[in-house]
TrEMBL record:
Domain of life: Bacteria
Record keywords, A-Z: Signal
Protein name: DUF218 domain-containing protein
Signal peptide residues on this chain, from the entry's feature table: 1-23
This protein's record includes keyword Iron-sulfur: no
Domain DUF218 residues, every copy: 58-178
Signal in keyword set: yes
Length: 205
């Protein structure tokens, strides 16, 4: 629809003003793969922007089960995309990827780390917990990693329907949580956005 195209372009201009670059279709190119909805526009106009943090605060991305072939499921990619943006906004923060449950010889943590490295994250920033098999284990293992590396607090990145349970588990494990970010509350997984101005192109979803 014509009005959707013009609204999309207007939203893209607004988003670009904040530092993001919109990959909405230009004249003579293909339309975006999915129509922009009112909910998508609301996410852009009222986004939950990542915070900026120092080198003593970890960005913790929680795992999600791999396929039997050892590949990333769509929900885990959404978490990784949100985590990547948070990592760009907090370039001094270490990144903890937590998740075991190996499939085809690959753990969630290792698959997540591979994705982040492919997206341009320095491997030296990534701390791996390849043993956790539950949210409680995510929290306990992350607490141990944080203590080992003298990290005082964490920003949790997980799915919207999981964040409350994750927060409770991390609280119980003694981890100070200073922020949360979910793909559902951010615009970039929902609209055809690129973040070229903040870092390299993301791997394909």
């Amino acid at each position: 629809m014509v009005w959707v195209t013009w609204i999309t372009r207007g939203v893209c201009a607004a988003v670009a003003a904040t530092g993001f670059v919109c990959a909405a279709a230009q004249a003579g190119t293909a339309e975006p793969p999915a129509p922009v909805t009112v909910q998508d526009l609301h996410r852009v106009l009222t986004p939950a922007l990542p915070g900026t943090y120092g080198d003593d605060i970890a960005v913790v991305i929680l795992g999600y089960g791999l396929t039997p072939e050892g590949t990333l499921r769509a929900e885990l990619i959404r978490r990784l995309r949100a985590g990547f943006v948070q990592a760009v906004f907090a370039p001094w923060s270490p990144i903890i990827v937590t998740g075991g449950n190996p499939q085809a010889g690959l753990t969630e943590a290792d698959a997540m780390a591979d994705w982040l490295v492919a997206a341009g994250i320095d491997p030296a920033r990534i701390l791996r917990d390849p043993h956790a098999d539950s949210t409680v284990a995510n929290a306990r293992n992350t607490a141990a990693l944080m203590a080992e590396h003298h990290l005082r607090a964490a920003v949790l990145v997980t799915s919207d329907d999981h964040v409350d349970r994750a927060r409770a588990a991390f609280d119980d494990a003694g981890v100070l949580v200073v922020g949360e970010l979910t793909p559902d509350l951010t615009p970039w997984p929902a609209l055809p956005l690129r973040i070229d101005q903040f870092g390299p192109a993301l791997p394909p979803a």
